[in-house]
Fold this protein.
Amino acid sequence: MKDILGQALIDYFEDRYSEDIITETNISEEDELPIPYLFRSFSEMPDIEQKALQLCKGKVLDVGCGAGSHSLWLQEKGLFATAIDISEGAIKVARARGVKDAECISLLELNRKGYDTILLLMNGAGIFETVEQTTEYLQHLKSMLNPGGQILIDSSDLQYMYDSSEEGGIWVPADRYYGELEFTMTYKNQKSDAFPWLYLDERLFEELAKENGLQFKIIARGNNFDYLVRLT
């Protein structure tokens, strides 16, 4: 898979910024992902992200770290953060920006234990890909936690993107959960392969968490049907 994100981050970091990433899903039109946003400071982050970072404790795993903005803030606060991403370019940039421990590896390939906080932000539940695969990811995350540890993860309910009926229901696909999307990213005439990305509604997320022996608590809600969860 082309490292679209990584190349865009490298270009921005090396002062070659000229355009943004274009994202598209199977239920929405093209949209811009501004690259400068991926280098945001704490004060520029949404309230949900700020809240999650402030709740971090002990040894932290930052999953899908991108350019490393979350890990850098945690380091500044004296916490030890390990940052991982499947994008080689992202890890190159995160290291160059000062993230001390950054590794290009997928979450399921990481077989380390002993984390007090595992952080998954910017629709962290997306990494689960499908509802069916969520159990595998939750069990893996659970196995990496220290006693008393926590998983801080955000997601969104996509009901608002579907047409509603007169009775108040929504018209959803018959062949899949309505939060299972296919994404593509385009940057400088390079287009990624389509990849799955999951958005979980609160009810289903809580049900899946409890099925996997995790306590589910909503910590904060955002302005775009998004919410932050603590799993323990």
